[in-house]
UniProtKB/TrEMBL annotation:
Residues 1-11 have a biased composition (Polar residues). Residues 193-329 form the BioF2-like acetyltransferase domain. This is BioF2-like acetyltransferase domain-containing protein. Coiled coil: none annotated. Gene3D superfamilies: 3.40.630.30. It comes from Rosistilla oblonga.
């Protein structure tokens, strides 16, 4: 069935609630009482104020949806620079009970924002579980691929390819200010004070501009990130136009979700930067980078510590690093969770095909001499990995 037909001819299905699934078959849409549920799709640009209000109400009911990637503002911003986003809306008696923003490639669905989105899943109340098989059938899709599923998944282990750590800094967890707690509990941070003193001696006093709106600073961040990707032979995501455009768009955003560009200066030298998102009291730490010329002083760590020291003044009580086991996340966090990566599919064959593809990539990453293979691969196929961002 074409996608447009799915939107225009919703199918009614029974509903149950989490905790009373009653052995519902894969054709059931929502677990709960036996009132009918339907699904329709709209382009993101048709998301109106009423739907935004319903989205926010469902999200407010579900603590798992704390990440700003679950906000309607993020979905709207991505669509402004891509214009291909869609939203599945599950309704009961004409009222939305779940939203799923996504991109489509053929019959495969992907989270809105593709791989720069660090938190995926359905936007729904904490006690509502949607039958994914039914939902995919309504969307004429064979699978929904994710790399960090945070919500709506009692059975996440059944369709996960694997699990990875996700990291958070809860700045309120100790009576000590968080940077002082880190100094007491992390040797790397204890040593940072000496490095920072040397940087100050060499270049001048530190100055943090927490909320810069200077596009030239953002351009410098993007330049340094691109150099970093080239050094590490990782696909340069900033070669993709819409990603650069999204960061510049977020820099101008005002409202519930704002882009947050922070810049650390030593004297008059710009030594480290971070582009993230702030929603309420949560800062999502997204794209940090530092100037390699000052690498001896670990200015990226110095930037983070300055942000922490000014957290109260900037109304921050949590810093979310998202998924991915990078060394600096292990050092700076005090809350660790695990999130699955994988695919939810309508058939075992579709799942195994995606699992095999993902397994091949993981095997290649684990091979001895992978740095050599990365050099060869990037030289032979410089655009390898680009498809993940389209």
């Amino acid at each position: 069935m074409p996608l447009a037909d799915s939107a225009n001819q919703p199918t009614e299905v029974p509903e149950t609630r989490r905790g009373d699934r009653g052995g519902a078959a894969s054709g059931a849409g929502v677990c709960g009482s036996q009132r009918p549920s339907t699904c329709r799709t709209i382009p993101v640009r048709e998301l109106d104020d009423g739907l935004v209000a319903a989205w926010k109400a469902l999200r407010a009911d579900n603590p798992a949806l704390y990440s700003p990637f679950f906000s309607p503002e993020f979905t709207l911003a991505v669509d402004e620079v891509r214009d291909d986003g869609q939203i599945a809306i599950v309704e009961r008696s004409g009222e939305p009970i779940a939203f799923l923003p996504f991109h489509r490639s053929g019959r495969s669905l992907f989270p809105i924002g593709r791989t720069i989105n660090d938190a995926h899943g359905l936007i729904c109340a904490h006690d509502t579980t949607i039958d994914w098989h039914w939902l995919l059938q309504q969307l004429d899709a064979t699978g929904y691929e994710y790399h960090a599923l945070f919500s709506s998944s009692d059975d996440a282990g059944e369709h996960a390819f694997g699990w990875t750590k996700a990291f958070l800094c809860d700045l309120t967890a100790s009576d000590l200010r968080y940077d002082l707690w880190l100094e007491q509990n992390r040797k790397t941070i204890f040593k940072q004070r000496r490095k920072t003193k040397k940087l100050i001696r060499d270049e001048g006093p530190l100055r943090l501009e927490y909320a810069s709106t200077d596009p030239a600073v953002l351009d410098r961040l993007i330049q340094l990130k691109r150099e970093q990707y080239q050094r590490t032979r990782i696909f340069d995501i900033f070669s993709v136009d819409w990603i650069r455009n999204l960061l510049h768009l977020m820099l101008t955003r005002d409202g519930a979700l704002q882009g947050r560009l922070s810049a650390l200066y030593a004297g008059d030298k710009l030594v480290a930067m971070h582009m993230g998102m702030q929603e309420g009291k949560l800062l999502h730490y997204w794209f940090p980078v530092y100037d390699q010329a000052f690498g001896y002083a670990s200015p990226g760590t110095a930037l983070f510590l300055e942000i922490v020291r000014q957290a109260e003044a900037n109304r921050i009580d949590k810093i979310d690093f998202g998924y991915g086991e990078l060394p600096y996340k292990w050092t700076l966090n005090n809350v660790i969770d695990s999130v699955p990566h994988g695919a939810i599919c309508v058939s075992h064959a579709a799942w195994h095909a995606r699992r095999l593809r993902g397994g091949v990539m993981q095997t290649l990453k684990a091979l001895p001499g992978k740095e050599w293979s990365k050099r060869v691969l990037r030289k032979v196929h410089p655009q390898f990995g680009r498809g993940r961002y389209h």
